[in-house]
Amino acid sequence: MKLDQICFRTSHLEQSWTLDAYRQVGGYQVLENLLKNKMRPEEILEQVKNSALRGRGGAGFPTGLKWSFMPRRMPGEKYIVCNSDEGEPGTCKDRDILRYNPHQLIEGMIIAGYTIGAGTGYNYIRGEFYEPIERFEAALKEAREAGLLGKNILGSDFHFELHTHIGAGAYICGEETALLESLEGKKGQPRYKPPFPAGYGLYGRPTTINNTETLASIPVILQYGGDWFHEIGTQNNGGSKIFCMTGHVNKPGNYEVPLGTPFSELLELAGGVRDGNSLKAVIPGGTSTPVVPGDKMLQLDMSYDGIGKGGSMLGAGSVIIMDEKTCMVKALKRIAYFYYEESCGQCTPCREGTGWLYRVIKRIEEGQGKQEDLDRLVNVAENINGNTICALGDAAAAPVMSFIKHFRDEFQYHIDHGHCMEHTG
Amino acid sequence: MEFLLINHPLDCPICDQGGECELQDLSMGYGDGVSRFTEGKRVVKDKDIGPLIQTDMTRCIHCTRCVRFGQEIAGIMELGATGRGEHMEIGTYVEHSLVSELSGNIIDLCPVGALTSKPFRYKARAWELTAHPTIAPHDAVGSNIELHIRKNDVMRVVPRDNEAINEAWLSDRDRFSYLGLNSAERIAEPMIKKAGQWQTTDWQTALETAVEGVKGIVAKHGPEELGGLISPTATLEEAYLFQKWLRGLGTKNIDHRLRQQDFADSQSDFSLNDWALADIDDSDAIVLLGSNIRAEQPIIAHRIRQAALSGATVSNINFFESDLLMPVQHQLAVDAKDMAYYTLAGIAKALTQANKEDAAEWRELLGERRPSPFEQNVALQLSNARNATLFVGDLINHHPQASVFRALAKLIASLSKTTLVILPTANSNAHLKAKTLPSENGMNTMQMWQSDLCAYVLMGVDPQMDTAIPDDARRALKRASFVVAINSFHSDVINEHADVILPAACFAETSGTFIGIDQQWQRFAGGVEPRGDSRPGWKILRVLANVSQLNGFEHISSQDVVDEIESEWNMGQKPASHDFIPESFSVTSDLMLISEVPMYRTDSLLRHSNALQQTPENKANDVARMNQQEADKRGVNHQLPVIIKQGENQISLPLEIDDAIADGCIYVAAATLASVAIGRMFGQVEITQAGPSS
Questions:
Q1: Would an 8 Å CB–CB cutoff place B61 in contact with chain A?
Q2: Residue B379: CA atoms inside 13 Å, Cβ hemisphere, count?
Q3: Between chains, do A348 and B84 touch, taking CB under 8 Å as contact?
Q4: How many domains does the structure of chain A reveal?
Q5: How far is A349 from chain B (nearest CA, A)?
Q6: pLDDT tens digits, residue range B99-114?
Q7: In angstroms, rounded to a whole number, what is the distance separating the alpha carbons of residues B137 and B140?
Q8: Which residues belong to any copy of the NADH-ubiquinone oxidoreductase 51kDa subunit iron-sulphur binding domain (chain A) (predicted)?
Q9: Looking at the domain assignment, is residue A262 inside a domain?
Q10: Interface contacts A/B by beta carbons within 8 Å
Q11: Interface membership of A193 toward B (CB under 8 Å)
Q12: Mean pLDDT, to the nearest integer, of B618-630?
């Protein structure tokens, strides 16, 4: 069987978010079977490892490996946390999983809890997601009523409770340790690592944090087997992935396709570049990944390793398409403004540096740029990169460095002439 | 480096931190000479966080040390970071003054000029100051400090690291008391009263007048008509020479226990051997008895808090509940009349039951008391501990039944193998060594004031503010025919009733020895010249003895005095001690006035430190407090002031309903102008509501 749609596998059904719809595609059967057969967590872990499922939140860390770090035999409470904060500009996939297939996430979290020995789960959902929160809450209610959550799930001796936590819309709370701080009721600021959450997580207890899409993939992996999932994608890049096609395409939206699909095919699925314009640049994984020039991008495959060859990252699969009319200075200004506003303020390079970057880019865009600004921007970004507790600093630096590397001429033009090149803007 | 300076103003020339700024040092070491940052810098509104700390929040580099200090050390998170990224600000969120008694430490912690000392603002540059090590005299800790001196002025005080004593911290009281040194109330010259008028004079005349007067009284009425009282803040040397001189004149009436009312247990031995402040850290059970520890001994409170955080159980028994800023296991506000008969006797009884061991002398007194759950819990807490400590504080020591309470505390301690620590007042351990205590058949403080002696010699004593019964002191001095005051500050009662005033040097101006709670002899030298024509106390006393033609006063330095004390101490016999056992616990008390000396009013120097007097906690002292139930019972409310009556004396104060106060008690802060008129600061009172017209 060839199945591309994993997280969106109910999308052909009416009211795909209900328990009935989910049951129609075989939902909760995996959970029932593993509870009935008292499946050993090691077996589940083996399947997940075989699947080559990699974290869908952006870092692409192998999920099976992450789960294996959990001290599952350690007494006391352990937690599974789902990161549905989805703050990366350009990303809109987790929202749709919550809206159209929340039960698959719930099943995935229960299975994850079973595997790592956690009795409590939290789904940290971004505060702006009104509809997804409502859908997820409704799904939780259905699941509880069906005996899929709570004490002695489906008559077994396994207990698992799942709660929704609504964030307040801070980008930094998508960072896993800041998310934990926020979940604990504190100001969302990342923690030093190590200790990693698997050793010292929520309330100081062992915790695993996975992205929504990652957890929602679990039931399907266990239904059809890890090897089957792996084969959908390419070597070490198992499964399908949702790509959020945004920007200058004719049919923007979420497309779930196997990893390894050529970018050109994906672009075609999304209806091609608007107005038949030519492709100028693509940010393949959300604004925190480096930009890739269009011609280069057309030769790449959409997989973690494939995009890596183009000098960027697959990230959360948030593909931002920019056509020839785009002013790269203006685009970078908007991105830099985002990081300036969203820096949490804990580390000096990021707190102070993001503001500096933004102000200089703004000046260039407004025609007040100076010749030395270009090298200075790169130098400041380099000084931020790698010098902060979390990856937000790196994320702020990456676009600046890559935009100037690939489109230096446009920046130069702005400095020299005080406005955009004629065909852009 | 570059990033740190982006939003940091380059206002070093007008910044108080200049010259001792960590950021400045780092910039000098690692920064570029020219800034590459050409955009605008941010500006942050300054916050008003009280009279002690000045803020310049634009200079803040968000290291959050002050926030961590609040969380980890002070135990009260008053400062926090609001806002994200570049919009992050340090502040109190809702504007208020910091109330932590250790708040001044954030001045030292702040690496830049964002938090600086308000009284020190724009006063001097770090490189103009000379550091002079000395000891803080305001509590029994003897915190190690450094005076920062320019020319002949103490410009500020900072802590000196001593892990055994104050670690790296300093209480606000010790940090800002120096501001009293240059008060206009300082006595600058020797003065004598002639025909009811004060005249300044030279030292020779003043000393001769003093000695003539005192000797005249002794010759005419006998030495028993002479009394000497000295403040427990005085140095070991001053204490020693004070009693040596007065004993040389023949009197037995000498005391330093100015606020004590009950002396029945004078023979009991409460001394501690080999006990150090660091032992608090090893305690796994701590019971506070009658001690508002945060105000009384802030550094000890800090140590107890650290012990509590690492697992020690803490209980608090007092006449009112207080927020100790640490996890407290058991807390009880006890009615003054129940303290001995119920609470303490109950704990003791529970311990004898648990130990199956009997304290023979106490059998009848403890009787058939059945301990309450609270009493049993505290008993268990103490007896189960590996290393328990029981602290007894001022509220017990100043109580009219102090002896009974302390005897019970001693019993509890011995039954549960607990270390008993009677918290000393300032340098009072040195005074015990120097024997500023009545000789056999001599009078103690209370007897001296109540016997209307013919002559008094006072050293560092403000009869109004420093005594248990200001009313008695006033009357006694009024009736006395001759009064000598060796003081640093003017005070109304002294000016009215003294005949000779000898200006004494203050803290920081004299050398001496401090013996704190841990029995360490800490020597220090004077840092600045005494104000005006005042002289170090030990010199004044030595010359007084010389003028009195007494032998054995040939000391030429304070070290000579210490040597003499040491050899006398080593040769001397330890005084015989026997425990005090009360005859009964019966206390009849209807409404008890309980009072403690507010943190910033414990001695003259503090009372003249403007910044400390302006702190909100100090200003909040002019009220009476009682709980709602008690107020209802007595038909009073907070809408009008209440009149508190004691015999013929009465005062009128606003009433504040405070449910932390125990039943049967009304709380009034001592040593304030509003409260001294009541007479006995700890005693029975009656209360009525003031009429609308009054």
A1: yes
A2: 24
A3: no
A4: 3
A5: 6
A6: 999 999 999 999 999 9
A7: 8
A8: 329-374
A9: yes
A10: 59
A11: no
A12: 92
pLDDT digits (tens, 9 = 90+) for A344-403: 999 999 999 999 999 999 999 999 999 999 999 999 999 999 999 999 999 999 999 999
Same domain for B310 and B208: no
What's the pLDDT score for residue A280?
A: 95
Q: Where does a domain end: A172, A199, A232?
A: A232
Query: In chain B, whose CA is at the least distance from the CA of A172?
Result: B84
For A392, nearest residue in chain B (alpha carbons): B85
- Please give the average per-residue pLDDT across A205-226, as a whole number: 96
Contact B318, B291 (CB under 8 A): yes
CB-CB contact of A53 with A44 (8 Å)? no
- Going by their DSSP bridges, the two strands A79-84 and A120-125 should be labelled as parallel
- Averaged pLDDT score across all residues of chain B: 93
Residue A2 has pLDDT above 50, yes or no: no
- Which residues, in sequence order, are CB contacts of B680 under 8 Å at separation 6+? B261, B400, B468, B469, B471, B593, B646
* Pairing mode of beta strands B592-594, B655-657: unpaired
pLDDT at B589 (0 to 100): 77
**What phi and psi values does residue B112 have, to the nearest 5 degrees?**
-120, -165
What's B74's DSSP letter? I
Residues B376, B471 within the same domain: no
Cα separation values, B9 from A99, B60, B111, B408, B439, Å: 49, 9, 14, 61, 65
Answer yes or no: is A28 within a domain.
Answer: yes
Does one domain contain both A59 and A191?
yes
Cα-based distances in Å from A375 to A253, A281, A378, A416, B465: 37, 22, 5, 15, 70
Length of chain A: 425
Residues A117 and A46 in one domain: yes
Looking at residue A302, what is its pLDDT?
95
Whole-angstrom distance, CA of residue B153 vs CA of residue B640 = 46
The CATH code of the domain that includes A263 is 3.10.20.600
What pLDDT does residue A107 have? Answer: 97
Q: How far is B98 from chain A (nearest CA, A)?
A: 22
A1, pLDDT greater than 50: no
Residue B357 has pLDDT above 80, yes or no: no
Residue A349 sits in a domain whose CATH number is 1.20.1440.230
Do B445 and B552 belong to one domain? yes
Same domain, yes or no: B437 and B413: no
Q: Judge whether residue B91 has pLDDT over 60.
A: yes
Percent of chain A with pLDDT strictly greater than 70: 98
pLDDT digits (tens, 9 = 90+) for A258-305: 999 999 999 999 999 999 999 999 999 999 999 999 999 999 999 999
B572 has pLDDT over 80: no
For chain B, positions 21-60, list CB contacts with chain A under 8 A: 36-37, 39-40
Residues forming a β-bridge with A284: A286
Structural domain includes residue B146: no
Burial of B578 (C-beta count, 10 Å sphere; 0-12/13-18/19+): exposed
Instruction: Fill in the DSSP letter of residue B344.
Output: I
With contact defined as beta carbons under 8 Å apart, do B690 and B641 qualify? yes
CATH number of the domain that residue A149 is part of: 3.40.50.11540
- Whether omega before B190 lies within 30 degrees of 0, making that bond cis, reads no
Three-state SS for B612-680 is: HHCCHHHHCCCCEEECHHHHHHCCCCCCCCEEEEECCEEEEECEEECCCECCCEEEECCCCCCCHHHCC
Residue B23 is part of which domain span?
1-118
Q: What is the DSSP letter of B87?
A: G
B219-253 pLDDT, tens per residue?
999 999 999 999 999 999 999 999 999 999 999 99
Cα torsion A107, A109, A111, A115 to 10°: value is: 180
